[in-house]
Each structure stands twice: as C-alpha cells, then as structure tokens.
Amino acid sequence: MLDIEERGGKVTLGLVNGGLVEADKAVLAIGNLPPHDHPAIAGAGLTPWRYVGDPWASPLAEGLRPHQAVLVVGTGLTAIDVILRLTSNGFGGRIVAMSRRGLRPHRHVDGLAPVRPVLAKPAPELSELVRWARQEAKASDWRLAVDSIRPITQMMWASADAEKRARFLRHLRPFWDVHRHRLAPEVADRIEGLIRSRQLVFRAGKIEDVVSEPESVAVHWRPRGEEERQRLDVARIINCTGPQGDLLRASDPLVRRLLKQGLIRPDALRLGLDIDRDGHIVGQTGRPSEHILAIGPMTRGDLWEVVAVPDIRTQVAALARRLVNAHWTGGEGL
Ligand SMILES: Cc1cc2nc3c(=O)[nH]c(=O)nc-3n(C[C@H](O)[C@H](O)[C@H](O)COP(=O)(O)OP(=O)(O)OC[C@H]3O[C@@H](n4cnc5c(N)ncnc54)[C@H](O)[C@@H]3O)c2cc1C
Questions:
Q1: Engineering a disulfide at 203: which of 77, 98, 168, 223 sits with its beta carbon 3.0 to 4.6 angstroms away?
Q2: Does ligand 1 come within 6 angstroms of the Cβ of 120?
C-alpha cells in the first residue's frame, strides 16, 4: 500500500499495483521501521557489500572469508539474531559487536517460581519503579521482578510526562531492555560458546569515523570511558541498532506520503506515530483522524510496552472491540 486518503467520511487506500480500495476505517499495522544508519557510517560511502544497513533485507555471510572480521553495530536482540545467522550460515571469522554501553540481553531461566503480577502502581514514578524492581529482585529473582510489573508498565508510562519519559529513555532504557527482552537459554548458550571460542567479542564504545579502504573498512572507535581512539579493520559492517520509529528519518514510501499529506506526525519523543487515546492517528494540525488508526510498535510513544506479541494482541483485541462497538455491550459476539 502506498497511500491513504480520507474523503467523504471514507478512506481510500492506494495500492502498489495502482488499484484503489475503499473502506470505512483503516488501521496502520506497519510494524517497525528499519534501523537508521549510524551517522559516521552513513557518510563513509560504503558499498552494500561493505555495509548492510537493514539486516532483515539482505544476506549477511555471503562472500565473507574465514580470516575476515565483521562489525555488528548494536548489542541487542537484533545483534544476537544476526550473530546467530552469520555463524549458522558458515561464517567462521571474528565478530565484534559494539554499542555505547556494550550491554547485551540477559539470559532467561526456565523453572522459576510463577510470576506474581503487580496490578497497582508500586511506585509513583518510572525511575522509582526501577528502584522498586531492584529491591524485589533481591528478594526473589530479577526476572520475576521484571515480569511482575509487566501489567502496569503501560500505566506507568501513561502517567509520566514527556520530560520523565525522555529521562527514562536517556538513562534507563538500555538497562530496561536487556532485562526485559531476554535470551532463551539455548540462544544464550550459543552466544557464550562463541565468546569462549573468541569468535565473538562485545565492546562498549563510540564509533567516531569510518573509512573505506581497498580491501576492508577501517573503523575508528573510542572505548567507553577512554580518551584514545582504536582502529578496527573489518570486511563488513552490519547495522543492528534495532527497529526505529522516527518518522522524520523514515524512507518508507507510505510513511513519507502520509507525512507529506499532514495525516501523521511523530509523537513527542519521536518513537513512532502520534495517536490519541483511542488509537486514531494525530495529524500535523493536532487533530486526530476519524477514520485512520494505528497499532503495534509504531504506537510505542503512547503505550511504550507494545512491541512483544502478547502486548500487541491485547491492543488489537481492544481496538477490535471498539471498531465493532462491542465495548458498549461487554464484548458479546467477539
Ligand atoms: C530481533 C527481534 C526479535 C524479536 N523477538 C520477539 C520475541 O521473541 N517475542 C515477541 O513477542 N516479539 C519479538 N519481537 C517483536 C515483534 O517481532 C514485533 O514487535 C512484532 O512482529 C510486530 O508485529 P506487527 O504485526 O505490528 O508488525 P510486523 O510483524 O512487522 O508486520 C508488519 C506488516 O506490515 C507490512 N507492511 C508494512 N508497510 C506496509 C505497506 N505500506 N503496505 C502494506 N503492507 C505493509 C509488512 O510487510 C509486514 O507484513 C522481536 C523483534 C525483533 C526486531
């Protein structure tokens, strides 16, 4: 789909093949936008052979030789997936995974006690919630503590103002992510095996400059907390900075078109689409659309915890109830 227009109380969807579809409502469920390019890498003029900007859209290990090295930018779940894909596709060379803090997702453990969901706000502020979770973690297991607050994270996010949300993203998000989005034990075993065999290393630091050389790419980076730059030579760089939601940097044709028409605008923190409390997209005039709604990770500015499938499922069920007016009747018929 390339386009949506609101006309005469209806929406008209413009398809790639030139066809048009008319509907009473449209729901944008476009998933995540691909990662943005790292500024130092974007300016280096690397060929697609040397730089994979979207790890989901390209082969990763093709043409790499065993003595070569690969730099994976980002150390979250996307990086983990990419490392597994590289090694299961036969790449035996060195892999360096780098991010500002070098934090990677923690291991999940099976067989823990059942999670006791917290249903009321245990702390007034997002930052205090993290402190509360730390104390709970000491009393049981940090995984149980993190999972127990899942039912109220959307509520905590909703009650925080833009400044508190921004502070959470700046200081706590990386720590939240590695505790919240964990590795299955088998995956953690494989990653630890690669680290032990020295094929994989995680590094904390900042990429400052990238230079294309005839046989490789020279990456100049500064380890976290150090002054001196280091040089790393790799055959390929793979962008694993994770899915993004900043509409203003998006190249997606539908998103660009809707922006141009003024039908959508970024949320205050540029995490995705601005929506109202009922899920209608909010346009550049600040007025919510009557006919176009959005769900999924692009609504994380409003809900925060809406990336994993169970949370999206709840959001979809609530939207479906509203669309058929079942919320007035208690949901009969759904
Ligand atoms: C590395 C990684 C690991 C993850 N692991 C987990 C996990 O273990 N558990 C979990 O619950 N979640 C996980 N997630 C998150 C989860 O996969 C996503 O948040 C979820 O798939 C989003 O669902 P969605 O339906 O909103 O979007 P998607 O599943 O991305 O689907 C969007 C669809 O919209 C289509 N589309 C986009 N634009 C257009 C257009 N203009 N016209 C027509 N179609 C369009 C796309 O082609 C796609 O089919 C992970 C995510 C990542 C990146």
A1: 98
A2: no
pLDDT at residue 124, as a whole number = 74
Segments forming the whole domain that contains residue 139: 126-180
Q: Ligand 1, closest atom to CA 76?
A: 1
pLDDT at 324 over 90: no
Q: Tokens for 101? A: 């803090």
As for how many domains the chain has, the answer is: 3
Residue 6 placed within a domain: no
pLDDT tens digits, one per residue of 166-189: 888 888 778 878 787 889 999 999
**Within a domain: 77:** yes
| 63-97 residue pLDDT tens | 999 899 999 999 999 999 999 999 998 899 999 99
Contact 130, 176 (CB under 8 A): yes
Same domain, 226 and 287: no
List all residues 6 or more positions away from 44 whose beta carbon is below 8 Å from its beta carbon.
51, 210, 211, 212, 217
Any ligand 1 atom below 6 A from CB of 306: no
Q: Is 263 helix (H, G, I), strand (E, B) or coil?
A: coil
CATH number at residue 234: 3.50.50.60
Atom of ligand 1 nearest to the CA of 2: 41
* Residues 74 and 192 grouped into a single domain: yes
Residues 6+ apart with CB under 8 A from 327: 318, 321
Do residues 279 and 311 share a domain? yes
Q: Distance between CA atoms of 8 and 10, rounded to whole angstroms?
A: 5
Nearest to 176, CA basis, from 217, 129, 210? 129
312 lines ligand 1 (CB under 6 A): yes
Distance of CA 113 to the CA centre of its chain: 29
Length of the chain, please? 334
Q: Extract the runs of DSSP E, i.e. beta strands, from the chain.
A: 3-7, 10-14, 20-23, 26-28, 51-52, 69-73, 94-99, 200-212, 217-223, 230-234, 236-239, 280-282, 288-294
> For the chain, how long is the longest CA-to-CA vector?
68
Ligand 1 pocket check for 30: Cβ under 6 Å: yes
- Identify whether the C-beta of residue 272 lies closer than 8 Å to the C-beta of residue 245: yes
